[in-house]
Structures are given as C-alpha cells and as structure tokens.
C-alpha cells in the first residue's frame, strides 16, 4: 500500500511504516502542500497521513474517493468531512492521548501569563519601557482558591483541572455533554449548567472539539454572562469563540483577560488588536509542540496505518460508521 506523508512529521512513525514494508512518500518540505498539490499527490496513494491544517472537505474527498484510510496527525479532526468520508467508506483515525499533558501545560501557562500580564510586560521591556517602580501599576490577579470552569471535561480538560487544583487549590466546576463522575470524585469537581459555568468561573477554559454545536459558541451574549474579572482560555480550536466578540468583550472590559493558543483564522493577522492588549497572551497553536507529544503522535499515526494494513481493528477510529 502506498502512503502519502503530507508534512515533515517526526521520523519515528515514518520509520515504523517503512519497517512494515509500506511504500512511503514523504513531503519533505516544512511548508505545507497547497490544496492542488495535496489533491494531485493523494490521487497516487492509498493512504493519506494528514494534518488538521489541510481541509479535507467533500470536494477533496470526492476527488480522492479511492482512499483506503486517512490517518490524521492530531486529536481534533474538524478539518475532515467525516460524514462524507463515511459515505465514501473511507475510515479516519486520530491520535488521542498523545498531546494531553502538553496541551494542559499550555492552557495552564496561558492562564498564569494572562493573570500577571506577562506577555505585555515582556513587550514593554523590549520596547525599552521598563519605567520606574509604580506601586499601583502592572497589577495582575492571583489564582489561589479561585474557581476554574472547564468547558469539556475530557482528557485535556481533566489534566488542566488537575494542575489548577494541585497548584492553586482552585475550585473546579465543569460543563460537559455527559457528567464525568470519575473527575468529580478525583477533583471534587461539580457538574454545572452552561449558564452557571459562565456565571461562576474566574477562569473559563475551553477543551471541547469544534462541531456544529460548538462553532462560535463563545459569542458576545456568552461573554456578557461571565464575570468582568474572568479570564477566558482557549487551547482547543479558534472556531469555538467568535473573535470579534472576544475583542469587544476585552476592549469594553466585559471580561478581564484571555489566553489563546488557537485563533480564527490561523495564522492570525499581525495587526489583530488582541496582540496589543495588556491582559492577553497568545501562542501560535503550540499545544502539542513538545518532543514527547509529537513523537507519540508520530507513533500513533503510524500504528493506525499499520493496524489497517494488517486488517486489525482500528483503535483510534473516529468514523465508526465505516
Ligand atoms: C496539532 C492539534 O498541532 O491535535 C490537535 O488537534 O490541534 C495539534 O496537536 C495540529 O492539529 C496539527 O495537525
């Protein structure tokens, strides 16, 4: 079977594929393929090792309906039209667990950075504006004992909540599709309604997938229901928050601050007003960017392909209809 590796992924998984005797083509470039390049190259392969930066919509899938498997190098797969893939009989797999700790770390780091205006402070030093000591300037807020609200208490949400409890003894509340009783026990977390989550959270951190139900969910109306002292954190997908509403909520002090590892669009425009706000910290979608996490993702994408080529059940199948 011929496998197209569509980006310069870590070698660990690529070696596994070669050892399995699969015919592997690696897009050696660090610059992603254009849509046209991806469509054309995929035509000559049976399996696509994909990334969430590529849009595998109905049109792409129709043009490549011969595909036998899409193995996605990410936990999120909102870039793939799963319904269409299912209709065409193309199974899709992802790489869960691999980036749980790394992404929880980034959420935690952003929370801390926002609470102490660290990114802004860094910029003032670079611009030569350290200034003199002013007792009432540069004041952040402390997190100890505050309430953290988790939207999506899955793997990453739970890891982030663990850090909040361990480091700051924060009270954990959460909203989910289904209650997570295990975390309720371990973290003394309370399941609350979405409205209550907005009302009670000092820090609200988003850890849900992007779907039709969650797209643009964090909009002006939602921000208006949050505390004016609240910090909003999003390390999931930029599409979950409405960017213009977030900018306005921060400008009008409807909420206090925001930490984002994901934006909409990505990359974000360098003139985006969010980049010049004191209480905002932004990183360029680096949630899974650790050696450990990317190696594990590489191992898992390969494992998914190997399981498929051997006719074994797919552990990380996300299109169960196929
Ligand atoms: C990746 C991610 O960096 O796993 C995910 O869903 O967002 C990140 O780990 C990105 O998707 C690249 O494929």
From TrEMBL:
It is an enzyme of class 1 (oxidoreductase). It catalyses: glycolate + NADP(+) = glyoxylate + NADPH + H(+); (R)-glycerate + NADP(+) = 3-hydroxypyruvate + NADPH + H(+); (R)-glycerate + NAD(+) = 3-hydroxypyruvate + NADH + H(+). The keyword Membrane does not apply. Signal peptide: none annotated. GO terms for cellular component: cytosol. SUPFAM superfamilies: Formate/glycerate dehydrogenase catalytic domain-like, NAD(P)-binding Rossmann-fold domains. Keywords: NAD, Oxidoreductase. This is Glyoxylate/hydroxypyruvate reductase B. It comes from Maribacter aurantiacus.
């Amino acid at each position: 079977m011929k496998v197209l590796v569509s980006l310069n992924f870590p070698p660990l998984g690529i070696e596994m594929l070669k050892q399995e005797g699969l015919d592997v083509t690696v897009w050696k470039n660090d610059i992603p393929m254009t849509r046209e390049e991806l469509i054309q190259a995929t035509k000559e392969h049976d399996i696509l090792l994909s990334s969430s930066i590529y849009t595998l919509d109905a049109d792409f899938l129709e043009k490549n309906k011969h595909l036998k498997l899409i193995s996605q190098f990410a936990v999120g797969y909102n870039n793939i039209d799963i319904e269409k893939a299912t209709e065409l009989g193309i199974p899709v797999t992802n790489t869960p667990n691999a980036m749980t700790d790394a992404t929880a770390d980034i959420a935690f780091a952003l929370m801390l950075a926002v609470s102490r205006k660290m990114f802004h402070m860094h910029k003032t030093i670079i611009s030569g504006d350290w200034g003199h000591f002013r007792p009432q300037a540069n004041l952040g807020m402390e997190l100890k004992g505050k309430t953290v609200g988790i939207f999506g208490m899955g793997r990453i949400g739970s890891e982030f909540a663990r850090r909040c409890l361990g480091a700051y003894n924060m009270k954990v509340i959460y909203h989910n599709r289904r209650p997570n009783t295990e975390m309720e026990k371990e973290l003394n977390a309370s399941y609350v309604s979405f409205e209550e989550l907005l009302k009670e959270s000092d820090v609200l951190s988003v850890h849900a997938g992007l779907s039709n139900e969650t797209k643009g969910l964090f909009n002006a109306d939602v921000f208006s229901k949050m505390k004016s002292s609240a910090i909003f954190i999003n390390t999931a997908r930029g599409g979950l928050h409405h960017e213009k509403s977030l900018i306005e909520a921060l400008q009008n002090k409807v909420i206090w601050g925001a930490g984002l590892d994901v934006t909409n669009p990505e990359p974000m425009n360098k003139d985006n007003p969010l980049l010049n706000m004191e209480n905002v910290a932004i990183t360029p979608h680096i949630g899974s960017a650790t050696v450990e996490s990317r190696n594990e993702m590489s191992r898992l994408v390969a494992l998914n392909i190997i399981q498929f080529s051997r006719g074994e059940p797919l552990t990380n199948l996300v299109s169960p209809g196929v």
